[in-house]
Specification:
By secondary structure, this protein is α/β, with parallel strands linked by helices. Helix content is 27%, strand content 25%. The strands form nine sheets. Strands 3-2-1-7-19 form a five-stranded parallel β-sheet. A five-stranded parallel β-sheet has the order 9-16-10-11-12. Strands 22-23-26-25-24 form a five-stranded antiparallel β-sheet, sandwiched between helices. Helix 6 links the parallel strand 11 (175-179) and strand 12 (207-209). Bound molecules: flavin-adenine dinucleotide. Residues 6-7, 9-12, 31-34, 41-42, 44-45, 79-80, 111-113, 132-134, 161, 248, 251, 282-284, 299-302, 304 line the site of flavin-adenine dinucleotide. Flavin-adenine dinucleotide (FAD) binds at residues 6-7, 9-12, 31-34, 41-42, 44-45, 79-80, 111-113, 132-134, 161, 248, 251, 282-284, 299-302, 304.
């Protein structure tokens, strides 16, 4: 059996190595148009930022080591230019010698990845304007950044890679501005989680221009002028384009393989394309999202690597291993904060018309009495009634990855809020609390499902009418330091004795700092006959960054001392 693989990084190299483990006698040829194989593209921003100082550490394998270990014929700097399905051959071009030749296959695997989007803007091909996909891009960017005259950087696009680049360029001492067309950074997470991160990014001195697009670039004697949709022009020495990526379907299209609704290579559950002798993995394929049921492309290293393994098993042992799809579990470190997401955000659920409820809590990374505990915010979306967990987003300073992975696992297994409440974690004070943040998130969501807690959200204050009561149950000092609208203040611990100050029959909107005291107040009021009470989800400390990150002209309400 002869296997030919196109693309030798995440998906392609994984497929090749597993093929060899499965079949010692197969002939395996892997083509890579770049110079390197199986390198750590996820580490590239950190090499640019000198966090990773040894360039060689980026290379998980070399062509020679891969050949030696796995007996695989690795052909770097060789681009496959055509797939000839009728003759079961590919046409390859050796970029060093210029030689063009045909290579026969019994089974072919496509793992060509995704290519950065480069919109046709005036001046976009000019000097100093880069995309970051591979080692060659990295070397260009790094040499440019190290020039003494490179002092200002503009990063276009505030996605995962854009933010990693912003942090790394900033840590090299550059003055960094991030331009983002959307009203928030990291569009896979919902606005409140992004707002917390945006405040952190700004606090580090990185300039964030949201709701702004770039209309063109002009070269000057000293650098680049970046022209913005707002009419402003930014001077920069280097520009990083991180606008997004799109699946590389050129070969698949040329070979007339089926391209799916999301514009990725169509594969069935066995990762087999519309041609039974051709399989495909990685960023170039589309697959059904297990939550929305809609076709989707995942641009992540984990799924690409795992698909490679499944694909190789199906190639050698027959189509027995089905791929279940990705829920897009992703994480990023941005300065001191970490933010991660798994599942489908509330915004995406709304777009897909999927009914859901949202709950947000803040909890300590470990026991508050043990030094170093840091707050993290967890937002869940879940199905009303059944409580099926649809998404989880976590932002904080410590222990975010651990909680996100737990929540991701529960989403992947169609788990429910009930499972979060009973999740048994390893506890000692340096690691967690007796009730882990995952449990706390579950408890809060369960209260909503059981209608023991009724919420309102940071952007719903304009619903409050003059007939309603807005009640702040924080302490007097907290209230005086900053409050929302004309809230009245009855600290939680005084509420039972001051109920006569709350007129009966009114709708009472309650808030506290993080949501917990508000919930306790709500329980008192509900059981004292107040039938219409709502508690602010995430409390003042979630409302505040949301408000600060909402453009002034769009803020619908007033606040004091924000
Ligand atoms: P790739 O790994 O991109 O490999 C495709 C290869 O195919 C390329 O090397 C390309 O040169 C080659 N190729 C394409 N066409 C041909 C052809 N015709 N002939 C020969 N060779 C061809 N994901 C995460 O989950 N976490 C992260 O932190 C993360 N960070 C990232 C940081 C950066 C800077 C980048 C660029 C990506 C990052 N990713 C991250 C995404 C992750 O790297 C990709 O999802 C993953 O590599 C996709 O694997 P793939 O095999 O589909 O494509």
């Amino acid at each position: 059996m002869k296997y030919v693989i196109i693309g030798a990084v995440a998906g392609g190299a994984s497929t090749a190595a597993r093929l060899r483990r499965n079949d010692e006698h197969a002939e395996i040829v892997i083509f890579e148009k770049g110079e390197y194989i199986s390198y750590a593209n996820c580490g590239l921003p950190y090499y640019i930022g000198n966090v990773i100082t040894n360039r060689n550490a980026l290379f998980v394998q070399t062509a020679a080591s891969f050949n030696k270990r796995f007996n695989i014929d690795v052909r770097t700097l060789t681009e496959v230019t055509e797939i000839n399905r009728s003759s079961k051959t590919v046409t390859a071009r050796n970029q060093t010698t210029g030689e063009v030749y045909e290579e026969q296959y019994d089974k072919l695997v496509l793992s060509p990845g995704a290519e950065p989007v480069r919109p046709p803007l005036p001046g976009i091909s000019g000097k100093g304007i880069f995309t970051l996909r591979n080692v060659a891009d990295t070397d260009f960017i790094k040499s440019y950044v190290l020039k003494e005259e490179t002092k200002k950087a503009v990063v276009i696009g505030a996605g995962f890679i854009g933010l990693e680049m912003a942090e790394n360029l900033h840590s090299l001492g550059l003055d960094v501005t991030v331009i983002e067309m959307a009203p928030q950074v990291l569009t896979p997470v919902d606005f409140p989680i992004a707002a917390i991160l945006q405040q952190h990014i700004r606090s580090k001195g990185v300039h964030l221009e949201l709701n702004t697009s770039v209309t063109g670039f002009e070269q000057t004697e000293t650098g680049i002028q970046v022209v913005l949709s707002t009419g402003h022009v930014l001077d920069s020495d280097i520009v990083i384009l991180s606008i997004g990526v799109k699946p590389d379907t050129r070969l698949a299209t040329q070979a007339d393989l089926k391209i799916g609704a999301a514009k990725g290579i169509y594969v069935n559950e066995y990762l087999q394309t519309s041609d039974p002798d051709i399989y495909a993995v990685g960023d170039a394929i589309e697959f059904t999202n297990p939550i929305t049921g809609k076709p989707m492309i995942t641009y992540l290293a984990g799924p690409a690597n795992k698909q490679g393994r499944i694909c190789a098993d199906n190639l050698v042992f027959g189509n027995h291993h089905s791929y279940k799809g990705s829920i897009n579990t992703a994480i990023v470190k941005v300065f001191d904060m970490t933010v991660g997401t798994a599942g489908t955000s509330s915004r995406q659920l709304q777009l897909a018309n999927i009914s859901h409820q949202v709950s947000t809590i803040t909890s300590g990374s470990h026991a508050g009495y043990y030094p170093g505990s840091k707050q993290m915010t967890i937002q869940l979306a879940f199905t009303p009634g059944t409580g099926r967990l649809l998404s989880a987003q976590v932002v904080g300073y410590d222990g975010v990855d651990k909680r996100l992975d737990i929540l991701s696992s529960i989403i992947q297994h169609d788990g429910t809020i009930a499972e979060l409440t009973e999740f048994e974690h390893a506890y000692a004070p340096p690691f967690s609390s007796a009730k882990d943040p995952v449990n706390m998130a579950g408890f809060a969501a369960e209260n909503i499902l059981q209608k023991r807690s009724v919420l309102f959200y940071w952007n719903e204050f304009d619903k409050i009418t003059p007939q309603d009561v807005l009640l702040d149950v924080r302490t007097k000092n907290e209230y005086n330091a900053g409050r929302i609208m004309d809230a009245i203040n009855i600290p939680l611990d005084e509420l039972r004795s001051r109920l006569d100050e709350l007129p009966a029959g009114k709708t009472v909107y309650i808030y506290c700092l993080g949501g917990l005291r508000g919930y306790l107040a709500q329980r008192i009021l509900m059981q004292e006959g107040y039938s219409d009470t709502l508690n602010l989800s995430g409390g003042y400390q979630l409302w505040k960054p949301c408000m600060l990150e909402t453009p002034v002209k769009e803020r619908k309400i007033e606040y004091q001392n924000l």
